[in-house]
Amino acid sequence: MKLASNEFLQAASAALQEQDKAQRRTIIGQFLPLARDAAASAYGDFDGLRAHMKRVRRHTTAHLSHYLEQFEEAAVQHGNQVHFVANAEQLNSKVLSICQAHSARRVAKGKSMVTEETGLNELLLKAGLDVLETDLGEYIIQQAGETPSHIVGPALHKSLAEIRQLFLDKHKLGDRDLDTVSEVVEEARSVLREKFLAADVGIIGANALIAEHGTSMLVTNEGNGDLCANLPPVLIVCTTFERILPRAEDAMALQRLLVRSATGQPQTCYTSFYTGPRREDDVDGPLETHIILLDNKRSDILASDYSEMLDCIRCGACLNHCPIYIGVGGHAYGWVYPGPMGSVLTPLLNSLEQAHQLPNACTSCGRCAEVCPANIPLPDLLRDLRQDESVQQLKPARWRNGLRLHAWLLRHPALYQSLTGWAMSVLGLLGKRRGTFRRLPFAGSWTGQRDFPAPEGGGTFMRQYAARRRRGGKRG
Amino acid sequence: MLRADAGEVNVAESVRARLFARLREQEASSEPEQIARALAALGHAQPARAAHADMHTAFLANVLANKGTVELARDRGAAVQAIARYLYQRFRTHKLVAGNDPRLAAMPWRDGGVLPRFGAAENGDSAALSYARVGVAETGAIVTFTGRANPGRNNLLPEDHLVLINREDVVATLEDAWARIRRDTVASGWPRGIQFIAGPSSTADVEAQLVMGAHGPRRWHVILVGDTPAEALEQASEGIAGA
Lengths: 476, 243
Ligand code: SF4
Fold this sequence. Notes:
The complex is a heterodimer.
Chain A: H1 8-17, H2 19-43, H3 46-62, H4 64-77, E1 81-85, H5 88-101, E2 106-109, H6 113-118, H7 120-126, E3 130-133, H8 136-144, H9 160-170, H10 181-198, E4 201-204, E5 208-210, E6 215-220, H11 224-230, E7 234-240, E8 244-245, H12 248-262, E9 270-274, E10 288-294, H13 298-302, H14 317-320, H15 323-328, H16 339-349, H17 352-355, H18 367-371, H19 378-391, H20 397-410, H21 413-430, E11 436-437, H22 444-449, E12 452-453, H23 461-472
Parallel strand pairs in A: 1-10, 2-3, 2-4, 4-7, 5-8, 7-10
Antiparallel strand pairs in A: 5-6, 6-9, 11-12
Chain B: H1 6-26, H2 32-42, H3 55-65, E1 69-73, H4 76-91, E2 95-98, H5 102-105, H6 109-112, E3 115-118, E4 127-131, E5 134-136, E6 141-145, E7 160-166, E8 170-171, H7 174-184, E9 193-197, E10 202-203, E11 211-212, E12 219-225, H8 230-242
Parallel strand pairs in B: 1-12, 2-3, 2-4, 4-7, 5-8, 7-12
Antiparallel strand pairs in B: 5-6, 6-9, 10-11
Helix pairs in contact in B: 3-8
The complex binds iron/sulfur cluster (SF4).
């Protein structure tokens, strides 16, 4: 997918103008956090579960080569072919060569953010393959020629009316109403059912890899990934090496966190564990299975100060809780991963230079870190990226100098206090008559939306605090 | 890597080697026994708070919460009757597809007038029946293994998925379920697919509205076989109505 993260500001401004989409996002921002909170409190000690998972992750990361080797060995023993690939091109061409080896024409895909990241579809389509996304949300945006706006619900930005029109245009099925959500789902079901049955190759992602059995875990509600994994004669699992966990029970702990954080369910409709091609006793299932393990800079991230970002389980909770994401939507972020997790991942998986606006798309409110089931300190990572941005001189000089001046001033409290005290008095005097300011120098965008209240007598907080202490040691 | 030519194999090998070298650089070297001990010391997660003190009631309540329907059957004879009723009410037929599970083959089908086709489900089949290996009270899920006894597609292709689960196969937590899975696969070997199912296929991808029957079954009907008091089902249903 083409990277357009440095157009964040323009894209965000444009998104803010779209009333209809903004309203749908507001609903996401209200409804999904409620569902998550209800599920977390019904669970009991959800924070304990988060802490447990973190310990398991630390242990796994500390012995990653051990577990990866164990996984590979078990997977090969079960008849899988395991491939390590370094980057997007290698993953895409590996998939293509497997398809070509089988003279495949039709590919059915389950939801996979990794293949979004590598732009797999584009390459397969160019090679003449018929590639179909089968997750309903992914299918809708594929038909519309768009990209996902949310990592869990890729088409949540689209209205029923838009999807209806899209289906009327794309599916030549004659006159029909198609004006309820059920009818739309029903139509997609029947169109896609045929595709599942005809597919030569199925491609799925993995929510976790289990070292002890060489198994991959797939978590879905629609069952589309399971159809991809059970019907076509060839199955390709595209994932990244750091999804690895030691035991099935660890994958269960992850699943408990993931599902509650994403949709508020205790378990999705389908949680499946696939371990290779058809066995002697099997009457269905793929004849050949491949597991492709992508690196794509993850080994760099692992060695960096941002390694905790690899604990992300792609639940989307940080998106649903982020005022910026809810305000501007996923497309403004200009790549595959939006919201707080995307603002960290996009610069790391591409380069800070190409995406340095994203870490600034943060109010430091901290809600993402509060709900992140993987306990990733997202606001800290974003701050560190902003620091890197400054060090690498990616910010305009005016900003950098301003920040430097501010930092210097903060390190000289006496000067800081007398300067701010002076500024308060001036503002207080100037604004005495109206009580507010309509415009202020250096704060044009702030006062563009609202008035700035003039400070009342008494001066800065520090001055008022000191005065109060003198009056009687009251702490207020 | 069977089909790859030599050039491709070399690239793949070097990617793998480089990754492992990179990882080992950052890891303190430890013996496998040490790692195993450290892992065991981590223990397992605390399961979710039980929906009900009685495990079977909790299981039923969670199946209902997952938008499934439930029924109690004293024994396999009663289960056949329940299935016959269900099929007739839903489809006005007694057609059913079921895997080659000896437990299913041995059921008194004739008494209910049901004649199952034993084998893999096809597109267009209205109902399939599975005999679950394990039921999980914690989440209201049932577990099946792919194989002759339950081909993977039987869980996915039909309009309705019917599931039998024996009372004694219901366990409290997801960890207990894995303990059972490990025990039950010692003799038969690790299956190709292990599927936890917790509801009919569903989607909320259009305007965040929940719709059943996304790609797989539209309905999911669970029959708990064994001596379960009727109150268990009443209490399970109350929990849902009150929620
Ligand atoms: S960063 Fe945390 S909250 Fe965000 S998607 Fe990843 S796991 Fe979920």
